[in-house]
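FAQ: What does a ligand-bound record look like?

Like this one, built around manganese (III) ion:
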Amino acid sequence: MKKIIFISAIILAIFSSKYTSAQQVSGPFTLVPLTYEYNALEPYIDALTMEIHHSRHLAAYVNNLNNAIKGTEAAKMTLEEIMANTAKFDIKVRNNGGGVYNHNLFFAILSPKGGGEPSGDLATAINSAFGSFENMKTQLNAAAANRFGSGWAWLYVAKDGKLAICSTPNQDNPLMDISEDKGIPVLGIDVWEHAYYLKYQNKRGDYLAAIWNVIDWNEVAKRYADAKNADPK
Ligand code: MN3
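The answer part, i.e. the structure of the complex:
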């Protein structure tokens, strides 16, 4: 009897691991691993949300993008080149390509060592564009809170070289040719419910208040410097 229970437990373990483990992905795009543990952003973003968000949601965008670009011109493009040409391709390329680009940025600008305020050139640019760091936060939170349904709020370098704030629906972003507001994103906040619902339920505002504790300003500053050095198109 004990043996049967033991064997059943093993079979169950094999089955459940099959359902809970990350989905397999095969190129050209791959699932970028996190540089921190799933529980590293607690208590601001909970471990289960991070695990599902990364190992299932992002993994699905990667898989779906790889499938959508198979045999097309996009299969030889970088993610940034795909963003600049979404109008040419199937809607699945826009949705899943945006999903991969946006989440790679989002997970990279979060850190357990985050929080505080930016310094240097980024701080100067924020003060010049918004008056103060607090004003920038207020405006970005408002863009995130007012996004109806699923989407993103962005701090980005606009075509005039200045920092600006916008919000996009679904998995769109300012790099896309179809975006109303165009530029290079340096900070993105995911306001899809999957980003916060397990911990914050319908209280998107509480998630938006908490996320500033885990924003990695060194990484945002690096992206700001790269964006300023990029060729204006
Ligand atoms: Mn998401």
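Follow-up question: can I read anything off the structure? Yes, for example: The pocket of manganese (III) ion is lined by residues 53, 57, 103, 190, 192, 194-195 (CB under 6 Å).
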